UniProtKB/TrEMBL annotation, chain A:
Top-level lineage group: Bacteria
Protein name as catalogued: Uncharacterized protein
Species per Swiss-Prot/TrEMBL record: Ruminiclostridium sufflavum DSM 19573
From TrEMBL, chain B:
Highest rank taxon of the organism: Bacteria
Subunit structure, interactors included: Heterodimer of SbcC and SbcD.
Domain Rad50/SbcC-type AAA stretches: 5-237
Coiled coil spans: 216-297
One Pfam family in the UniProt entry: AAA_23
Entry's family note: Belongs to the SMC family. SbcC subfamily.
GO BP field: double-strand break repair
Entry keyword set: Coiled coil
Listed GO MF terms: ATP hydrolysis activity
Protein name: Nuclease SbcCD subunit C
Length: 49, 665
């Protein structure tokens, strides 16, 4: 399975999470809200063509 | 953040419009405000807290200047405000907070004048920044100002940058500094990300449809059970940790009391016991090290431990059999009787020679057939011998190595018991003295409770470890199932991506946390050694608390302050040096240090030492000091001072100071 991973997508997800969490240091959204956002972001990045 | 200017208008004792410009010169980064007691030094720090975060720490919460207030008549409106200009990320910002007070009543009670103001003054807050043209000002929406300020300098961490002399002593003694350290170093970003992602991975795992596969379903149920259990163990572990810390603290407290005893016998016994205690700690550490070495030695060839006696015995048996039956005739390797039968049946050999019964070629081939498997085991025996001898090669010293380690383990255990007895003996000398006896009994009680709590903690920690390993097993079983099931392939892909990112986050966080811990310990020790005249070394524990590595004696407020200064200076300098930054990860920050009477608990030698360090650690230092402290501080600090002010109370016609009117000169 691992060899099917797209390194670019992986890097994009990493970067997006760091951006979202840096933003949330001040926005202070709840844990469930952040988890939902991250989940949606991962689905969207993984399924992006 | 670099501070440019502070302006106040009728704020507390600062009457009218007052302004302070801060030095931002990198060579002369200190701004000093010198004033006598009650002149308004603390108000400066509080002006920052109020303007930035709306924090009002005054006992009398009215911020309007008293003189202005006393001149108000019913219905009059007066305003007080504080404005701060600062630079952040190369942009110049101005934040201004104001309170508008309305006089609700004014009357006299005897000689006393009473002026009451509306309870909730109207508050205004604005934050704007200058565009790169240096002219255009862009206001930030009121609803976003708190968030924006938190982005520049988080409110939760403001205690570490705006503080008074009384507060500084307690900083390094706080029960848990992890949050502050992670926040200042921006490790909280990585920590929060990994916590959130962990839940996201679990969510994806929960999406896997396991219907129709009993093993996968069992793993899914198990995962749920173990995850719940893990949370319970974590909670339990935190409680045990609190107990461990509490009783350890108590033991050290009684130890410190015993250290103060004037009786020579108690003093000496206490010193001897401290020495023995240190030796005990070293031996306990050695014990766990030897145990680990023993396990490592065992793990190099674990099969040898179980199989070696059997292999040796079987080889000996074969040797005996060989002596009795003679040498086993050599046979064609990897050939069985079936192959010869095939050749006989077809009537000719692979070389083309006919194999008719009774001929010489036939007899030769049949002779070979007799030593071939399965009827004859000679070849199998030879193969076994080859393999067995291969296993034995290199295991000659295996047993000796484990035996040596085990002997060392036993010897260390014996030494531990000896030292424990020695400590017990020293305790008897201590309890000969009546006063010390009571303290010693309490200390022993605390020590027993500490040992009990530690044992509970270790037990719980083991259970937690088992639980984590069960969770891992369940997760890998589910993942394996998902990868092989067509209906779950989408979810399996999402799990793989999120799991990969989660692992990367954990690894990055752990790596950076280790850098922070090591670097903090190094810098705190370095700074402390430069600030403190005695010899002491400092360790940073798992919660980033600052501890002395030697035996604790009672600490003066001055020593606590020096310790806190060393801690803050190190932390700020690490953020300033951006020690964690990478290409895509910018975690370093600039922080100013704003201090009110920072040296109030510190003696002159320490003032001298602290002043050598501070200007080099922070990007900007603002301090309000008393004249007498400045006399010591200026010796080292003067060359770093870019701006200097005096805080002076106004005087009446008779030259007497007016408490309600202060000016900055």
């Amino acid at each position: 399975m691992d060899q099917n991973l797209d390194e670019k997508k992986l890097d994009k997800i990493k970067l997006r999470i760091l951006e979202m969490e840096t933003d949330n240091i001040v926005k202070k959204e709840s844990n469930p809200a952040m988890e939902d956002k991250i989940r949606k972001m991962i689905i969207s990045e993984v399924e992006k063509r | 953040m670099i501070l440019n200017k502070l302006e106040m208008y009728n704020f507390r004792q600062y009457i009218g419009h007052q302004s302070i410009e801060f030095s931002s010169d990198s060579e002369k980064n200190v701004t000093v405000l010198i004033g006598v007691n009650t002149s308004g030094k603390t108000t400066i720090v509080r002006a920052f807290e109020w303007c930035f975060y709306g924090k009002n720490a005054f006992d009398d919460t009215v911020l309007l200047n008293s003189e202005v207030r006393n001149n108000m008549n019913r219905g009059d409106v007066q305003e007080t405000w504080v404005s701060i200009t600062f630079v952040h990320d190369e942009k110049v910002y101005t934040i201004k907070r104001s309170f508008k007070y309305v006089c609700s009543e004014r009357y006299s009670e005897g000689d006393k004048l009473i002026v009451n103001l509306n309870k909730k003054p109207e508050e205004n807050l604005s934050l704007e920044y200058l565009q790169s043209d240096g002219q255009t000002k862009t206001p930030i929406d009121r609803a976003n100002i708190t968030e924006s300020m938190d982005r520049v300098l988080p409110k939760d961490l403001s205690d570490y940058f705006f503080f008074g002399g009384e507060r500084i002593s307690s900083i390094a003694d706080r029960t848990d500094l992890s949050k502050a350290v992670r926040g200042l170093m921006r490790l909280d970003v990585l920590e929060n990300a990994s916590n959130h992602l962990k839940t996201v991975v679990k969510g994806f795992e929960g999406d896997i449809d396991t219907t129709g596969d009993s093993n996968a379903q069992r793993a899914k149920d198990g995962l749920e059970t173990y995850t719940k259990r893990k949370a319970e163990y974590e909670q339990e572990l935190a409680n045990y940790d609190k107990q461990v810390q509490y009783w350890l603290g108590k033991e050290k407290e009684y130890d410190a009391q015993l250290a103060k005893s004037n009786i020579e016998q108690v003093k000496k016994a206490k010193q001897d016991r401290d020495r023995a205690q240190k030796a005990l700690e070293a031996e306990v550490q050695r014990l766990s090290q030897v145990k680990a070495e023993m396990v490592r030695a065992f793990n190099t060839r674990p099969y040898a431990f179980f199989g070696l006696p059997a292999i040796k015995a079987s080889l000996e048996m074969l040797e005996v059999a060989k002596e009795k039956a003679g040498e086993v005739k050599e046979s064609v390797p990897a050939m069985e009787q079936d192959a010869v039968d095939y050749l006989i049946n077809r009537g000719y050999c692979i070389c083309g020679t006919r194999l008719d019964p009774g001929t010489i070629p036939y007899m030769k081939v049949m002779e070979e057939r007799r030593v071939l498997p399965p009827e004859h085991v000679g070849d199998a025996v030879r193969q076994y011998k080859d393999k067995a001898e291969g296993y034995l090669a290199g295991t000659e010293d295996f047993k000796d190595k484990i035996e040596d380690k085990y002997k060392e383990y036993r010897a260390t255990k014996r030494r531990i018991v000896q030292i424990q007895n020695e400590i017990e003996e020293q305790s008897k000398f201590i309890i000969d003295d009546t006063d010390a006896k009571e303290i010693e009994n309490k200390r022993r009680d605390a020590h027993t409770k500490y040992i009990e709590a530690k044992s509970d903690y270790d037990g719980c920690s083991r259970k937690l470890g088992e639980c984590e390993s069960n969770i891992k097993n369940c997760e890998s079983a589910i993942a394996k199932y998902a990868k092989n099931s067509a209906k779950n392939q989408r979810t399996a892909l999402l799990i793989t991506y999120s799991q990969k990112v989660y692992e990367w986050l954990l690894e990055t966080y752990r790596g950076k946390e280790e850098i922070v811990r090591d670097e903090l310990q190094r810098r705190v020790n370095d700074n402390f050694a430069k600030m403190y005249h005695g010899e002491r070394s400092i360790v940073i524990d798992d919660k980033y608390r600052v501890r002395y590595s030697d035996i604790i004696t009672e600490e003066s407020d001055g020593l606590k302050a020096v310790k806190s200064f060393a801690f803050i200076a190190s932390l700020v300098s690490m953020a300033k040096d951006k020690i964690l930054d990478e290409d895509d990860m910018k975690l370093g920050q600039f922080y100013p240090l704003v201090m009110d009477a920072p040296f109030s608990n510190v003696d002159e030698i320490h003032i001298d030492n602290i002043c050598r360090i501070l200007p080099n650690t922070a990007n900007q230092v603002v301090m309000a000091v008393m004249q007498k402290d400045w006399e010591y501080a200026s010796v080292n600090l003067d060359k770093y001072v870019g701006k200097s002010y005096r805080i002076e109370k106004d005087r009446d016609a008779n030259g007497k100071e007016i408490e309600t009117a202060t000016h900055i000169m």
